[in-house]
Design a protein that fits this description.
122 residues; mainly beta; 7-stranded mixed sheet
């Protein structure tokens, strides 16, 4: 299963961006979806995650500013980011786990997107 992330770019402080991540391949089912980020010189951290049932959780640093959502019909996860701050600058990665179809049944997958750069700067 391959993930393709898009939507990053340069935005001024206080601005908004919407990230998207679509999964493709022999998908049987998708459980969790999430967004992580990695700033220069820092470890990758969880930004937001959403379960198959739609329950979401967020890092404290983005609560009230970011919203994660999913469209199961499109195998896509979104991250709406608003009131962006310079400290939100990072490469954002999407992640999904679930089960893929094989010739003999299904098997678990845990896939990552290629990363999309978000730069918050005036």
């Amino acid at each position: 299963v391959q993930l393709q992330a898009s939507g990053g770019g340069l935005v001024q402080p206080g601005g908004s961006l919407r990230l998207s991540c679509a999964a493709s391949g022999s998908i049987f089912s998708i459980n969790g979806m999430g967004w992580y980020r990695q700033a220069p010189g820092k470890q990758r951290e969880l930004v937001a995650a959403i379960s198959s049932g739609g329950s979401a959780n967020y890092a404290d640093s983005v609560k009230g500013r970011f919203t994660i959502s999913r469209d199961n019909s499109k195998n896509t996860v979104y991250l709406e980011m608003s009131s962006l701050k310079p400290e939100d600058t990072a490469v954002y990665y999407c992640q999904m786990d679930g089960r893929s179809s094989t010739s003999w049944g299904t098997r678990r997958f845990d896939s990552w997107g290629q990363g999309t750069l978000v730069t918050v700067s005036s």
